[in-house]
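Quick one, probably user error.
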């Protein structure tokens, strides 16, 4: 069974940082494009960032460009999202996605003073 397990969420003050991790198993991670998608309370899903299977190309939504950095370690089957300069509007459940097909259960990020 494919597994994607997100971690690293929590409560952070505005301007702070968090690093999310997504550990993958039971599929060929090294051949999979990965993405982060978030869903804020009462809103629909929002694509945040993506990275190609080799890690050579990354993509960001305009709302996080310059503040978030996606990366991956194919030896550890893990994708990361470094989030800096966090804003209250970044509050959401963050989900890891593999190839547009597999989803984790998400990790909650709350930005509040």
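Nope, works fine. Designed sequence:
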């Amino acid at each position: 069974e494919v597994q994607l397990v997100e971690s690293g969420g929590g409560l952070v003050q505005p301007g702070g940082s968090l690093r999310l991790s997504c550990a993958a198993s039971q599929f060929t991670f090294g051949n999979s494009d990965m993405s982060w998608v978030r869903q804020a309370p009462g809103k629909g899903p929002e694509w945040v960032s993506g990275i190609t299977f080799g890690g050579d190309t990354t993509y960001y939504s305009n709302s996080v460009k310059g503040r978030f950095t996606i990366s991956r370690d194919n030896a550890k089957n893990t994708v990361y999202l470094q989030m800096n300069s966090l804003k209250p509007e970044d509050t959401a459940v963050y989900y890891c996605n593999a190839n547009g097909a597999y989803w984790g259960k998400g990790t909650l990020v709350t930005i509040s003073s």
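Residues 35 and 50 are 4 Å apart (CA to CA).
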